[in-house]
Description:
This protein is an alpha+beta fold. Helix content is 21%, strand content 29%.
Amino acid sequence: xxxxxxxxxxxxxxxxxxxxxxxxxxxxxxxxxxxxxxxxxxxxxxxxxxxxxxxxxxxxxxxxxxxxxxxxxxxxxxxxxxxxxxxxxxxxxxxxxxxxxxxxxxx
Length: 107
C-alpha cells in the first residue's frame, strides 16, 4: 500500500526474523516498516538500526569492512537472497517481504 505523507510517497515493507534476532528487533518476529518509496535494503537496515540500536548494527555489519554484512547471515527479499539481487542497493517495493536469518549450523 502506497500512501502520501505530505508530498512524500511512502511504502510498507514487511520484516520478519527468528531465534535470537527477535530480541534484536524489539521482540517482534514480524513487523511492518514504513519507508520512502524507492528506498533500498540499506535504507531499511538503517531504519531498523535507528529504531533498535547499535546492538543490531554490530550483529549485522562486519567490524572491519564498512558497509559489509558479516558472515553467515541470510538476508532474503521475497524469498531470494539479496546478494543474488543487487545486494544492499536492491530497491524495495511496497509489500515486499524481508527476512533476516541468523547464522545457523548443523551437523
